[in-house]
Amino acid sequence: MLFSFVSLILVLIPAIGIKSLGARRWLPLGFFSFQPAELTKLAFVLYLSSFFANKNLPSGEPCFSNKRKLLPFLFVLVALLVLVMMEPDLGTAVILAATGLIVYFVSGGPLLLISLVGLFGLAGGAGLIFFSSYRRERLLSFLNPSRDPLGTSYHIRQILIAIGSGGLFGVGLGQSRQKYEYLPEATTDSIFAVIAEELGFVGAVCLLALFLLMIWRGMKIAKEAPDDFGRLLAVGIISWIGFQALVNLSAMVAIVPLTGVPLPFISYGGSSLVLSLTAMGILVNISKQRIVEK
Amino acid sequence: MPKRFKNKVTLKNCNASPDWFLISLVLGLTVFGIVMVGNASVVEAFRDLAINFIISASNLSGPF
Predict the structure, then answer these.
(1) Angstroms from B40 CA to nearest CA on chain A
(2) What's the ipTM?
């Protein structure tokens, strides 16, 4: 966790962090670059699981004084969100906040407090959007995709054209036309648009089904985990992966504004893939220690 | 109701087999992702090469 904080601060230093497409998100490490925000997601889930598991009573019942859990949790969450928003990376901030609140809820946090924190978060997010010109432009493009077809709305329009051209069964593997020059970020954030164009509605639904199956298995592992730490860790990991997939896919079909979040296991990006697979390795380890009813 | 142990994950309970279904899902998605990214990125590389070739061959200047 400490390493995540340090690397998130390092990435903001102009002489160290690499700036690309208006955001400073990468650290140069010789022959490859590293994205500290990806490590932060895993470190945050590990930290929260350990923290909440230790705050519980030995019997497994949640601690009555939720202040003991809520205030330190909020402090760490807000500190991380501030650092991530300075990059800026709204998508990662949303995923961190959502994952943190889910782990807090599963650890026994009351729904009222979570709703209040969520409302404050929404108000803060709305404030950030309206005080930042590029976020405001993105929101307006989201609300009206034909507003500026060659400017701010270009990306979402090309994504929708790609998905629409796919039809029911797609144009065929490798036959996408949108990936030639038209679709920005075809290998990273917009990979789902290429998949939907080449494999069609059926392929896209199959991909969605695979993600849903993964979430179901993750929740099953969490349910059968041998202790609180394992349970919270499994829930945290699967919430992070599931929420990231949800945010990416929602942005692709214009349900939420584009945020620049990669699709787990699919999008190009070394940091994201390595850390997602590490998290899945931990999940498999928890599954090896599950309690099975006889 | 399965019995829960105290907050400590140890290797002592490693009797259950790992979740092979989850492992297959993750590996399947990763291989599919590599195929799709390769599919798109090779195209991008050739596209950039072609654009650079056209620019240098035609010795164009200006908006192109």
Answers:
(1) 6
(2) 0.84
